[in-house]
Amino acid sequence: MDKIKRHPERARTERAQLDAVLDAAAMGTLATVVDGMPWAVPLLYARDGDRILLHGSTGAGALRHVAAGAPAVLCVAMLDGIVVADTLFDSSANYRSAVVRGNLVTLDEDDSAGALSVLSDGLIPGRSREVREHRRKELAATLALALPISPGQWTVKVRDAPPSEPTESNSAWAGVVPMRSVAGLPVPAPWVAPGTPVPASVSRLVESAREDKQLAWRAGI
To answer: Domain-by-domain residue ranges, the chain?
Structure first.
């Protein structure tokens, strides 16, 4: 992995720690250089073993640029808490972040179908088994890519701590405000007939988010 120089104590060096950060998020920012200018776009992704799956339209010129072999980097970050210190200078945030560099590989049609299902199930586990298979024209319109996770080409950084103890005695409150993402109740599309049941995958997704919230509440965070 690359060496982190700024706050090296926050670096995580185990591959399992990288996987944990990547698996906890669903969106990252893919960046490269196109015609000498910086280019970045937020994309949904899913980790599939030793590769990160991404996709976009075949009409996206910059995406075709990285598909052709231009070096790229995927950045992922999650805000876990606002760290409130006794001074603005010492205030901070608890977070998890990961950076993966490399060259993307374009997936062929056979691999694309499976990769797109993995991407969908990364967002809504089990959803791919509830719907029809991908159609050929849909696959033809989609550019499926994989970013290999290679040794020495990634970094992970985590802050998970209270604010630093003040150097001067004072009575100011200090602590951490935890931040969590939760799922709301599913909202049917306007054309869905009343009484149509919510798919099992969607119900499980909502229930899972509620369980996470309950666990956090019971832990006092």
So the answer is: 8-163, 180-221
**Which of 24-33, 72-81, 91-100, 206-215 comes out lowest in average pLDDT?**
206-215
Q: Which two tokens stand for residue 109?
A: 């049609």
Report whether pLDDT(14) > 50. Answer: yes
| Torsion angle of C-alpha atoms 14, 213, 42, 159, degrees rounded to 10 | -40
Backbone Cα Rg of the chain: 21
Buried b or exposed e, range 197-217, using 16+ CB within 10 angstroms: eeeebbeebeeeeeeeeeeee
- State the pTM of this model: 0.87
CA distance readout (Å), 123 to 23, 166, 173, 198: 10, 42, 38, 16
- The fold for domain 8-163 equals Pnp Oxidase; Chain A (2.30.110)
Q: Is 60 exceeded by the pLDDT of residue 165?
A: yes
